[in-house]
Amino acid sequence: MTFRTTAVTAFAAAALLTPVLLGPAAANATPSTGVSAVTLAHTDIPAGLLPFIPQGAHVEVREITIAPGGTTGWHYHDAQIYGLVRQGTLTHPGADCKPVVYRAGQIIEEPGGKANTHEGTNLGTVPVILDVLYVMPPGKPLSEDADAPACAQP
């Protein structure tokens, strides 16, 4: 199975679980502003249960809302994640500070690792709403705070 097939399968399995409300993640290096998140579903896949995830995984689906003028702050993920922009326009610069713009209906694929530090910003007038699928290594957080890259320093 491909990772994409695995992710879709995990998304479907996680979507069947009971919703749990979580608050916004705290950021230390470059704090988020105007961001809230609701966990729609989550589960843990034990090591050895699925051959395509031999180490196991924490699977979580979250609805993330970024208010107009809000930002996630600079961060990265320890594994590739997938998102769907349900509403609004997300400006998404990476470590090279070149913004990529995602509009409603578009899919975001974010590679994992510190080298893929990025931020999400809402420069529009309506909230950005994202549905994000995380398939994370056991014990890893959904995101890791990061310093803004040199190109983003004022």
TrEMBL record:
Keywords annotated in UniProt: Signal
Protein's UniProt keywords contain Signal: yes
Residues annotated as domain Cupin type-2: 64-130
InterPro entries: Cupin_2 (IPR013096), RmlC-like_jellyroll (IPR014710), RmlC_Cupin_sf (IPR011051)
Keyword Coiled coil applies: no
Signal peptide start-end: 1-29
A Pfam family of this chain: Cupin_2
Top-level division of the source organism's lineage: Bacteria
Official protein name in the record: Cupin type-2 domain-containing protein
